[in-house]
Amino acid sequence: MKEQEKHIDLSYLRQHTNSNPLLMSEMIDIYLEQTPLLINAMKKGLAQMDWHLLHAAAHKLKPSFRIMGMQNDNEAIANKIQELAAAQQSSDIIAELVVSLEKICSSGFIELGQELNTLKKLQTGKTIK
Question: Which of 106, 103, 101, 104 lies closest to 81 in space, CA to CA?
């Protein structure tokens, strides 16, 4: 059985929180709460051809990708969405990019949920190695 592709790498988060399970959990919780809202804002912006909303939502997503170790393709996709939204063109291409970004984020949500469960167990006083 082939191992499923991972979409997250929490090295950056571990480094910047000194592997503190509580801080890491809080950051993951924020990501899991805010990212779906931003993806929905991108969908709304696309549906209404509100280029400013679409551009702003894509822009707001980018820093969280780095924090959650999802910056590779996601950041490039968000950049392309911003570029096309700024030019107010290619809504079909933007729609495909938004769907792609949403799928990758959804896979990341599952992985982050698993990490969050592990971190909550570690909050009993153990540290992450």
Answer: 101
Domain locations along the chain: 11-122
Averaged pLDDT, 17-45: 95
Residue type, 107: S
Confidence of residue 36 (pLDDT cuts 50, 70, 90): very high
Short-list 77, 82, 55, 84, CA closest to 7: 77
Name which of 112, 118, 106 is nearest 29 in CA terms.
112
CA–CA distance, 121 with 83 (Å, rounded to integer) = 42
* Count of C-beta atoms within a 10 Å radius of residue 75: 15
Average pLDDT of 56-67?
93
Measured CA to CA in angstroms, residue 117 lies from 43, 59, 114 at distances of: 30, 29, 5
CATH architecture of 11-122: Up-down Bundle (1.20)
Rounded to an integer, the average pLDDT of 74-101 is: 91
